[in-house]
Amino acid sequence: MTVPAELRQKLQQYRQEHVLAWWDRLTENERRQLIEQLSSIDLDRLTRLYAEREHTYRPPDSSRIKPLAIVPADAPDNAAMRAAGEETLRRGEVAALVVAGGQGSRLGFDHPKGMYPIGPISRKSLFQIHAEKVLALGRRYGKQPPFLIMTSPATDAETRQFFADHAYFGLPREEVFFFCQGTMPALDLATGKLLLEAPGRLFLSPDGHGGTLTALSKSGLLEQLRRRGIRHLFYFQVDNPLVKVADPIFLGRHLAQRSEASSKIVPKQGPKDRLGNLVLVDGRCTMIEYSDLPDSLANERDANGRLRLWAGSPAIHIFDMDFLARVTAGAGLLPFHIARKKVPYLDDTGQIVQPQKENALKFERFIFDVLPLAERWLVMETSHREEFAPLKNAEGADSPQTVQAALTNLAADWLRCAGIEVPRTANGEPAVALEVSPLFALDAEEFAARVDRNIRINGATYFV
Fold it and tell me: Which of 64, 100, 225, 374 is the least buried, fewest Cβ under 10 Å from its Cβ?
C-alpha cells in the first residue's frame, strides 16, 4: 500500500509530512489505519485553530450579563404542564440521549463510567438505572422512547458489549442506539505539528460533549429519528443517576414555550460553585463557566441576600429536533475551545516521551455553546436533592458515598410522602440504605400509589 498522492501533497502543503516517517516499518493494517486517520482530519481548520493558540477567552463585560427568567420548581401550573408532557410521550415524540464517553479513571474504575455499580443496595450500574428509567417510561405511556448512548472510541466497544451481555436491560434492542463521538488530533504546542502516539497512529482525543450533536448528525441518527416522528431530544450525562429522564413537567414547559433549547438549573450553594452559570448575555441564554465569571458578579447579591446569578447548570436539556438539524447543518456553528495539556508523544527517535509540562493543544466543543443559537428557550429550576448527584471522584464530594446517600435520601423522601417512617440518625439522615428501582416507580406519586402503606422500615430496603 502506498500513500495516496493527494494526501501526501496535502501533508506537504501543511508541513505535516513527518507523520509518514515510519511508513516503511508499518504493517499493511497499520498503514490503512493511518491513512484513514489522516484523511478524516481537516488540516486547514487545524492550522487556523493553531493560529488562535494565544487567544485568551475573555468573559463578556459585566454590563452585558443579566440574570435569566427561571420557572420555579413549584410553579402553580405544573399539573397542566405535566399533562402536556405526558401527551407528547404517549405520541412517541421523545427520545433520550445519554452522554457516556468517559472512563471511570478518577473513580479508580478501569471501565466506562456508565458501568460503575452505584445502586446503594442493588449495585446496579449507572447504565442500568438510566435504561430502566427509559423502559419504565415506555411502559407507563405505551410508547417506548428510543434510547441513544453516545460513546467515545475508548468506551464504545465495551459499552456495546455491556448492554448486549445484559439483554439491553429489558429495552427492545431496536430502540437502543449507540453512536461514537468524534475525535480531534493534538498539536505540538511549539510547532503546530500533529503528535503521534505510535508510529502508525495519531494522538486523538474526544472532541467534547458538544461533539454529541455533530456525531448525532454524522451518524444519520438525527435524520432517522426525525423521519419516525421524534420531535424532542432529552439530553443528560451518564454520571447523574438522579436525573428525571424525559420529565413530563419539563417537557410540557418546553412545548408551551415552543422552546428550541430548554435547560434545567440547580441553585448554586455558593458564589464559586464548580457549576456553569446560566445567564443572559446580550439577551441570549448563555452559559459562563464558573472559572470565567468575574468575582464581582459571582458574589453579587440581591436585596434578600440571595446570589443574583444563582442558576447552576446540571447539564440537563431538551432540544427541539428541527433546531438540532439547523445547528448541525453547517461545519462551524459550534466553536472549538483550545486547551493546553500534557500529551505523551512519539519523538523523532521512536521513543515515547512523557512530558513534564504542557506540550500540546487539544480541541473540544461544548454543548452549552448551542444555547445562544436558540431563538426561543426555557430555563426551569430543579434541586440537588431531587435531581443532581453527579459521580466524579473516588472520595469526598461527588463520590460513590455521596451519590449513594443521595439515592437513599430520595427514597426516604418518597417514603415520607407516602406516610411511611424511616429510621433516622441523630442528624436526621436515613439510618439505613434505601433504594427504589425505576421499574417500581419513577416519581413520588407513583411510589405512593404502589407501596404497601403498612410496611415497616427496619433495615436496608430495596423497592423493586
Answer: 64
Determine the 3-state secondary structure of 270 from DSSP: coil
Mean pLDDT of 287-306: 89
Alpha-carbon distance values, 17 to 14, 41, 346, 348 (Å):
8, 14, 15, 13
Q: Which pLDDT score is estimated for 332?
A: 56
Cell numbers at residue 415, please? 417514603
Residue range 361-385: average pLDDT? 95
Q: How do residues 130-160 score in pLDDT, each as one tens digit?
A: 999 999 999 999 999 999 999 999 999 999 9
Rg value, the chain, Cα:
24
Q: Grid coordinates in use for 26? A: 508499518
Predicted TM-score of the model (pTM):
0.94
Instruction: Render 183-249 in DSSP notation, one character per residue.
Output: EEE-EETTT-PBPEEETTEE-EEE--TTHHHHHHHHTTHHHHHHHTT--EEEEEETT-TT--TT-HH
The contacts of residue 329 (CB under 8 Å, 6+ apart) are none
Identify whether the C-beta of residue 106 lies closer than 8 Å to the C-beta of residue 157: no
What is the distance between the alpha carbons of residues 115 and 127, in angstroms, rounded to a whole number?
Answer: 6
Q: Write the DSSP symbol of residue 181.
A: P
Place of cell 458501568: 115
| pLDDT in the model for residue 331 | 57
Residues of the chain with CATH 3.90.550.10: 62-391
- CATH class, 62-391 region: alpha beta
Q: Which residues contact 151 (CB under 8 A, 6 or more apart)?
A: 100, 101, 112, 159, 160, 178, 179, 180, 181
Q: What is the pLDDT of residues 170-203, one digit of tens each?
A: 999 999 999 999 999 999 999 999 999 999 999 9
> Which grid coordinates belong to 234?
432529552
Q: How distant, in Å, are the alpha carbons of 155, 179, 215, 224, 331 from that of 218?
A: 19, 10, 5, 11, 11
How many CB atoms sit inside 10 A of residue 28's CB?
8
- What's the mean pLDDT in 301-326? 95
Type of residue found at 161: Q
What is the 8-class DSSP label of residue 71?
A: B
Q: For residues 356-369, give the mean pLDDT.
A: 94
Number of H helices, E strands in the chain: 14, 24
